[in-house]
Write a structure and sequence with these properties.
Elements (H helix, E strand, L loop, with lengths): L1 H18 E3 L5 E4 L8 E5 L4 E13 L2 E7 L4 E3 L24 H11 L23 H13 L7 H6 L4 E4 L8 E6 L7 E9 L2 E4 L8 E4 L3 E2 L2 E3 L2 E4 L2
Antiparallel strand pairs: 1-4, 2-3, 4-5, 5-6, 7-14, 8-9, 8-13, 9-10, 10-11, 12-13
């Protein structure tokens, strides 16, 4: 029995050793997407072990263009991950590099590329920012247009109501789904804001005057607006 337990533990250790890789650098940043243009989620130190979910192609770092999605939900350049090879050691991430649907990841990536663009009420659409910026629904329309080559309605309420998408409970949200907020919680008549779901607790949006397109925590209620119970998925 003891021998059997020892063998089982040894096999488990071997599996763990082959699926986790050491970081070869100090303060190596892990980003929300496959590239340094994405926000920093956390940092790793030399010797930290990371397990990989998938790998994606992104901007080259010292000649290595692979980016590794770790089980922490962020991407680190493969250059600093000692996998023993410059090639793939696990599956390729879906199109757009995200861990969920490739289409959803493409929507997020399209929005991420606009980070820092100012908020402008009524700004933006399928062709990009207008009058120098985006408002909330201008950004979401742009991201979906770019990712899916499909034009969705322009305002937050009409996006929530659109027959082009499907409503799902917020608990089932995936990368690229649209989140909505309504005045007084009246999602039938008074949707006032929309953002793009990245992962649990995090979204990207054009929030209000004075703030640029940015990632931020998903909030449930503020200023008389409450989050709607459903998300809308356009793929």
């Amino acid at each position: 029995m003891l021998y059997t337990q020892f063998v089982a533990v040894s096999i488990a250790a071997a599996i763990s050793a082959t699926s986790a890789y050491p970081i070869d650098g100090q303060g190596v940043r892990c980003h929300s997407g496959p590239g340094t243009e994405y926000s920093v989620v956390k940092s790793y130190n030399k010797g930290d072990l990371v397990a990989l979910t998938c790998q994606a192609v992104g901007p080259s770092v010292n000649g290595d263009s692979l980016w590794d999605l770790t089980t922490d939900g962020c991407y680190v350049t493969d250059y600093y991950v000692k996998t023993g090879t410059s090639g793939y050691v696990t599956k390729q991430c879906p199109s757009g590099g995200g861990g969920g649907s490739g289409f959803g990841a493409d929507i997020v990536n399209a929005a991420e590329k606009e980070k820092g663009i100012p908020y402008v009420w009524g700004g933006g659409g399928c062709n990009g920012p207008s009058d120098g910026g985006f408002d909330c629904s201008g950004l979401t329309q742009y991201a979906v247009c770019q990712a899916l080559k499909k034009e969705i309605p322009r305002t937050a309420q009409t996006q929530y109501d659109s027959s082009l998408g499907k409503r799902l409970p917020r608990s089932e949200a995936q990368e690229g789904d649209l989140l909505f907020w309504a005045e007084g919680g009246d999602c039938t008549n008074s949707v006032a804001h929309v953002g793009i779901f990245i992962r649990d607790g995090l979204m990207i949006n054009a929030a209000h005057s004075g703030t640029p397109v940015r990632e931020q925590a998903i909030w449930t209620s503020s200023g008389g607006e409450s989050i709607c119970p459903d998300v809308v998925r356009f793929w």
